[in-house]
Amino acid sequence: MQKxxxxxxxxxxxxxxxxIYFLFVFFLLAFLLYPIFFVLLRSKKNVHKAFQLKxxxxxxxxxxxxxxxxxxxxxxxxxxxxxICANHASYLDIVVMFVVIPNTFLxxxxxxxxxxxVIRIFFRNMxxxxxxxxxxxxRESIELTKQAVKEGFTIAIFPxxxxxxxxxxxxxxxxxxxxxxxxxxxxxxxxxxxxxxWKLFAxxxxxFGAGRPGVSKVxxxxxxxxxxxxxxxxxxxxxxxxxxxxxxxx
Length: 250
What we know:
Blueprint: H1 6-40, H2 47-64, E1 67-72, E2 83-86, H3 92-100, E3 105-110, E4 128-130, H4 135-150, E5 154-157, H5 177-185, E6 189-194, H6 197-200, E7 214-220, H7 234-247
Parallel strand pairs: 1-7, 2-5, 2-6, 3-4, 3-5
Antiparallel strand pairs: 6-7
């Protein structure tokens, strides 16, 4: 374990207070927008309107917490359905993704999110929960993502599955689900690197870790084609996507 400096200990209370402030703003905005989301998400027909409201929520949150987003590679974005694959080293990643991606996308995320009061309204009738502890439900979630792609939606997945606890920002090995989805539906993979979020906001496992305003640097890489690829090419696609995202992390 790396020995911490005096400066780290001096700054710890400030980082902790910033994280408390960030969460306060997060939940305050969630409560204020809850009635609108509740009405919109009573019907799946309003998914695009709800997504744009999520973007507004995310932009306000970042402004009030002093985080500016800088994007490289905007020209690589596509209006066509694809599978977004990004590294995941901070809870900030989800918020920033709503600001960076202009077109409606659905998250394939942890089923535990549906258990959180207030927060679950953001995911109901929009994003797709996956319970990795239950093989049947996990397969069911994959089928839902396939149907969503057929309906023209982009799917966003963190292929690591979880935020790494140690050695951040080094990525954990990627799981196969995102790549099986892309191959089965013959849609491209959109690699995205959240380069600096891990420096701005650490996870709850380190309450005195990174927590400060700053620049969230995002790198949008060129699409990776899955045309004519099969399950035999999954490992190749995983390696290519992993190395591409890794290059964009500071």
